[in-house]
Design brief:
Length: about 180
């Protein structure tokens, strides 16, 4: 009787967890040609940020969507990010863009230390090296922040030159 009652009580609980996420955890709304906009929908142009500036951006039409948030950084023209093969043109005019979701638990990585060129996750203090493809240098983050390739169009607007290079947020699929 206890087993039957346990199943009866557990069924509504499991049912209330909602639909299965499917592939949505691996996909974002970033596509080739997506315009970078601020949370209030203002298009980002190449002259918007001074060197050392940061800005949270989204693909146009998806402002406020957590998996889509990207941190846009403007580095000094004298600093050249180390690039992996195939990523030599992922930045433009000193700009680079990385997913804002920490690869540890998905907290927003929003603290930028300009002197050391590092992004910091305030939740568990993971530190990512901006000049080395946002590789984690300290903390529990298991992998680098996904990078968004960006370009400037003829009108001076910043646009995505493709999607993120990997799924944003925690690497739950990598766990044994």
């Amino acid at each position: 009787g206890s087993t039957a009652m346990g199943i009866v009580l557990l069924f509504p609980l499991l049912r209330s967890m909602g639909p299965k996420p499917g592939r949505t955890l691996f996909e974002t709304n970033w596509k080739k040609g997506s315009q970078l906009v601020t949370v209030d929908g203002r298009a980002v142009i190449a002259d918007d940020l001074e060197v050392g500036g940061v800005l949270t951006v989204f693909p146009k039409g998806y402002q406020g969507s957590s998996p889509d948030q990207v941190i846009l950084l403007r580095l000094s023209n004298t600093l050249q990010p180390l690039t992996a093969p195939g990523r030599t043109d992922w930045g433009v005019q000193g700009y680079v863009a990385y997913s804002k979701l920490c690869t540890h638990l998905g907290c927003p990585v929003g603290l930028y230390q300009e002197q050391t060129q590092q992004l910091v996750c305030p939740c568990h203090q993971s530190i990512f090296n901006v000049l080395a493809g946002a590789l984690p240098e300290f903390g529990p983050a298991p992998r680098p922040l996904p990078q968004l390739p960006i370009t400037v169009d003829a009108s001076g607007f910043l646009r995505a030159n493709g999607g993120l290079d990997q799924a944003p947020g925690p690497g739950f699929w990598e766990r044994p």
